[in-house]
Design brief:
The protein is of the alpha/beta class and 191 residues long. It has helices at 13-24, 31-40, 44-55, 61-71, 90-102, 117-127, 134-154, 168-183; strands spanning 2-7, 28-30, 81-84, 109-114, 159-163. The structure holds adenosine monophosphate.
Length: 191
């Protein structure tokens, strides 16, 4: 199963992707985590990405797409993957679609985590990551609000909206239920 997770920064995508990856035994691929690993390893890519991440801007798509292409070339994605935080723009989505049509096959689902801005502000300030400061959070929310609607429109035929308010376990239950419905919709007269 190939899927992507979208939602406001702080919506809990990373936590839910982690749980779902365990549940489905699929790799969890987070572009934010990949960038943070590059920064920790002091690679050239990490040095470039850092300036964007620390200001809350998106890392340029050519860099991001090349990193994802590289990751999706690994053997462990053969039976599927959970992409978290990528794509974030229609440009990136089109690059991903092209990459997948040449290699692994199309996406099965896009999970969009819906949550209020107040909830994500509370969660991010509690999390306290280096890019979770007031100004940077504002920039990230602004960019998300500009980019996400066209992205969801691009994926409207495979979109599942998930209510991401509340407890982690409850949200996970909603995710599993939504995926079950999406992948085996009950057809009239078949049960
Ligand atoms: P995240 O961990 O998903 O919140 O991502 C942290 C930061 O990494 C973002 O604020 C961006 O600067 C960068 N980043 C992560 N994913 C992408 C992406 N798909 N495109 C561009 N920049 C990204």
């Amino acid at each position: 199963m190939r899927m992507i997770l979208t939602g406001l920064p702080g919506a809990g995508k990373g936590t839910q992707a982690h749980l779902l990856a365990q549940f489905l035994e699929l790799p969890h691929i987070s572009t934010g985590d990949l960038f943070r690993q590059h920064i920790a390893d002091r690679t050239e890519l990490g040095q470039t990405a850092k300036t964007y991440i620390n200001s809350g801007e998106l890392v340029p798509s050519d860099i991001t797409v090349a990193m994802v292409r590289d990751r999706l070339g690994a053997n462990d994605v053969a039976s599927g993957f959970i992409l978290d935080g990528f794509p974030r723009t229609v440009d990136q989505a089109m690059a991903l679609d092209e990459l997948l049509s040449d290699t692994l096959g199309p996406l099965d689902a896009v999970l969009d985590f819906t949550v209020s801005e107040q909830t994500v502000l509370n969660r991010m300030l509690a999390r306290g990551r280096a890019d979770d400061t007031d100004d940077v959070i504002r920039t990230r929310l602004r960019i998300y609000n500009e980019e996400n609607e066209p992205l969801l429109h691009h994926y409207s035929s495979i979109l599942c909206s998930i209510d991401a308010e509340g407890e982690v376990e409850d949200v996970h239950t909603r995710v599993v239920r939504a995926l079950g419905e999406r992948l085996s919709p009950s057809r009239p007269g078949t049960n």
